[in-house]
Amino acid sequence: MNDEQELKEIRKILSEAKTIAVVGLSDNPDRTSRQIAEYLVGKGYKVVGVNPNISKSGEIDVYPGLTDIPFEIDIVDVFRRSETIPELIPDVLKVNPKTLWLQEGVRNDIAVKPVIEKGIYTIQDKCIAVYYSLCRPFRKN
User: Fold this and answer.
1) Staple 124 to which of 67, 95, 107, 128, CB 3.0 to 4.6 Å?
2) Within 10 A of 1 (CB to CB), how many other CB atoms are there?
3) Which letter does DSSP use for residue 65 in this model?
4) Considering Cα of 1, then 97, then 78, then 90, what sign does the dihedral take?
C-alpha cells in the first residue's frame, strides 16, 4: 500500500469510528496518552481508557482491561512499549475492533500478525492525533 492509499484508508477509519479505547491511558494530564485521549473526545469520539490502576482520567472512564469494556470498540489505540504488545493481543482478538492502532514509537510486527490474519486493520508507529489532522476525516456525530 502506498502513502496515498494508506491515508485514504486511515481517513475512512477515522471517519467511520465512533468509539476508541486508549490502552495505557494515564490520569496525569501531562502524559501524551491523556492529551491525545482528550483531543479525540474533543473531535466527537466516545473515548474510554484501559488501565488496571485507575478508574477515571479526567472525565474519561477507564476500565481494567479491554475485555471489561461493555460495548463495541472501533479502534484500540495503544500507548504501551513495543515489547508489551504480545500480552495485549489475546484481548484484542477477543474484542475484535475494526482497527488496532499502535501509537508513534510502538511497533511489533510479530505480535500483530494474528490480528492482521483475523482481518483487523492494523496501524503501527503512527500518532492518531497527527493522522486525524492530516486526514481531516468527515465525522458524523
Assistant:
1) 107
2) 8
3) S
4) negative
Tell me, what's the pLDDT at 37? 98
pTM over 0.85: yes
Q: Which amino acid is at 119?
A: G
Q: pLDDT tens across 27-86, in order?
A: 999 999 999 999 999 999 999 999 999 999 999 999 999 999 999 999 999 999 999 999
Is there a domain that residue 125 lies in?
Answer: yes
Sheet containing strand 46-50, strands side by side = 56-57, 60-63, 46-50, 19-23, 75-78, 99-102, 121-123
**Residue 103 domain flag:** yes
| CA dist., res. 46 & res. 17, Å (int) | 9
Cell of residue 138, nine digits:
468527515
Helix (H, G, I), strand (E, B) or coil at 90: helix
The total number of structural domains that make up the chain:
1
Residue numbers of the domain that contains 56: 3-135
Domain membership flag for residue 140: no
